Amino acid sequence: MDGSVQLILLFCTRRLRAQPDPGYDLRPEGAATRYRCLIVDHDDTAVDGTRRVHYPAHLRAMEILRPDRQPVDLETWFRKNFDPGIMPFLVEELALTPDELAVEHRIWREFTSREVPHFYPGFLDALAAYQGNGGHLVVVSHSEENVIRSHYRGAANGDRVVPDLVFGWDLGPDKRKPSPYPVHETLRKLRLEPSEVLVIDDLKPGIDMAVAAGVDAAAAGWSHNIPEIREFMTRACVAYFQTVAEFAAFILR
To answer: Which of 15, 38, 167, 226 is the right S-S partner for 182, CB 3.0 to 4.6 Å?
Structure first.
């Protein structure tokens, strides 16, 4: 475990009088975050999904569907997922037909079924401590629910982290983010108020979802550092976390 994350976990879960990093805004021992529920993104927030799975799957699809076209590089892929979003990019910019979208989807599912991305160091430890303090965990992602759950089940994190709810790509276009549906369902099923929920995401669709649902959002900035994405997330969110340790300090304070 990352040393700074370990320090934070010890401070918050065991109430030890450890000296925090000067950059952390930790409250006095015993104080808890006002957020009773975290709605976390999966890829590039919890796991290194784009580099390990989704971008390689897209490259393979392009080899088959557009062999004469140079695919976008990784940084541009992040930008396209940020804005306009994956489906507008595939349909409007690449002009994939419904049949071609089906091929892209099949290849993507082949990759997600065999490639397992790693959780970012310290992320599961922070979630385990948060749940140990009574917090709820919900995952809202553009990966499929069964894939997300398999990642959490398979993670060797010592303290098992099990999401209360998972909303994935398989919800369909009208209910997946940026639709506020996952947040509304979270509020309903867990009997929460909007002020008790914090969305954590690395890209615009998750922030748009939070804004539409009237809940706070914070940015996961540890997976990429693209200026226009960082600028938007800093402006639109209640906090921008450059590291998992900063995220842990915030949710456990």
So the answer is: 167
What backbone torsions phi and psi does residue 119 show, to the nearest 5 degrees? Answer: -70, 145
DSSP structural state of residue 202: S
| Confidence category of residue 23, pLDDT binned at 50, 70, 90 | very low
Sheet holding 197-201, edge to edge: 165-167, 136-140, 37-40, 197-201, 216-220, 239-241
Total structural domains within the chain: 2
Residue 226 has pLDDT above 60, yes or no: yes
Q: DSSP states of 86-134 as a string?
A: HHHIIIIIS---HHHHHHHHHHHHHHHHH--PPBPTTHHHHHHHHHHTT
| Domain around 235 | 3-18+31-48+119-251
Predicted TM-score (pTM) of the model is 0.83
- Distance between CA atoms of 188 and 23, rounded to whole angstroms? 36
Q: First vs last Cα of the chain: how many Å apart? A: 19
139 plus 230 within the same structural domain: yes
Look-up: residue for tokens 């209910």? 175
Q: Residues 193, 72: one domain?
A: no
Q: Are residues 145 and 205 in the same domain?
A: yes
User: Would you call 37 helix, strand, or coil by DSSP?
Assistant: strand
Q: 64, 75, 73: which is closest to 108 by C-alpha?
A: 64
Burial of 54 (0-12, 13-18, 19+ CB in 10 A): buried
Residues 180 and 90 in one domain: no
Please, is 84 exposed, middle or buried when counting C-beta atoms within 10 Å of its C-beta (0-12, 13-18, 19+)? middle
Helix (H, G, I), strand (E, B) or coil at 235: helix
Q: How far apart are CA 137 and CA 116, in angstroms?
A: 21
Residue 65 sits in the same domain as residue 190:
no
Q: What is the pLDDT of residue 160?
A: 82
